[in-house]
Amino acid sequence: MTVLGTRAARAATGSAGLAFAVLSAATFSTSGTFASALNGAGWSPGAAVLVRIGVAALILTLPAVIQLRGRWALLRRNARAVAAYSLLAIAAPQLCFFNAVTRIPVGIALLLEYLGVVLVVGWLWLRHGQRPRRLTVAGGAMAIAGLAMVLDVAGPGRINPVGVVWALLGAFGLASFFLLSAGGEREPLPPIVMAWAGMCAATAGLAAAGWTGLLPMTASTDSVRLLGHQMSWIVPALGLSLLAAVIAYVAGIGAVRRLGAKLASFVSLSEMLFGILFAWLLLAQLPSALQFLGGAFIIGGVAMVRLDELRPSRAPGSPARSPAQQRELAPSQTGGR
User: Which of 66-75, 124-133, 292-301 is predicted least confidently?
Assistant: First the structure.
């Protein structure tokens, strides 16, 4: 392949990865709207998470089985990765966040959870020697500052230390989502299969926790209020499962496989921007000037990290990385896929 052909392939891979990352962030941002509607009708957080993941697993069953046809051994070889993904990347972040927001303001909880982006950079530095350069550090600081502006964390609200601990645990879960989505095996599971298998395992674990009483499970078939209208609880349940789980997780895994864990995690910060955009369009909640400025900071920070990814990162003669290491790094650093 010529140099121009290689560059074109990398550009196409990067563009597809960015599209998947933005799609994942946008669909993840709808979860708050759907979950709030269910919570307002008497649903407990645990029940909402169980329905979200369980129904999503059912939706993905047919396409996952079709992709695995004749390759069931691949699922067995990735059993450890699936178990870790279901616990650390699916169940834990949601439960930690729900426990956090019952004790501290949502803005503070989100800011602490999204420190998982910093944990991703730290892991790649400690595990693979990928020391962050100045442009990445500056872009990360700018994006986190923008996130603080968007969430208005300086607003009133009592800080409960237990809530802070739950939110920080959620940050580890968020970092795990990006790192585990990269795939650690020589032949990782396809994104749809990885999401399906992880959701099946997470559903079983959450159901067991609810059955034993460790996780409160309360649900209701009463009508819910969504977007100013009364409607069946099935509508937000399907929205939570299809948009905020199936599409969000599959697109997120696809983004990490193409962009690497670091850049994909920074792009995920745009989830807050989409949340504000949907509130503006659907609920007529106009963002403040500070939130607009924060959005510009987030976009600027992500752009800086992306520019840093496009720069050469290894000097000639440097040792080669293993396939597992390459999948955690951006295509620009590994030669693309």
Answer: 124-133
> Among all chains, which residue has been given the structure tokens 């990928």?
130
Residues 189-216 have pLDDT tens digits of 888 999 999 999 999 988 988 888 878 8
- Residue pLDDT, tens place only, 133-172: 887 888 888 888 887 787 766 665 556 788 888 888 988 9
Tell me the torsion sign for CA atoms 256, 259, 265, 270.
Answer: negative
CA atoms within 13 A on the CB side of 212: 7
Encoded tokens for 98: 């729900």
Cβ 222 vs Cβ 42: under 8 Å: yes
Please name the amino acid found at residue 257: R
Residue 164 half-sphere exposure, CB side, CA atoms within 13 Å?
5
pLDDT in tens, 38-49: 888 888 888 888
pTM for the structure as a whole:
0.76
159, amino acid identity: I
| Helix-, strand-, coil-residue percentages of the chain, each rounded to 5 | 75, 0, 25
Sign of the CA dihedral running 161, 163, 167, 169: positive
Tokens (6 digits) for 266? 């920074």
DSSP assignment of 213-243, as one string? TSS------S-EEETTEEE-THHHHHHHHII
Length of the chain: 337
Q: How many helices (H) and strands (E) does the chain have?
A: 18, 2
Q: Which residues, including other chains, have CB under 8 Å from residue 183's CB and lie 6 or more apart?
A: 81, 189, 194, 257, 324, 327
140 neighbors 268 (Cβ within 8 angstroms): no
| Residue 228 backbone dihedrals phi, psi, to 5 degrees | 85, 10
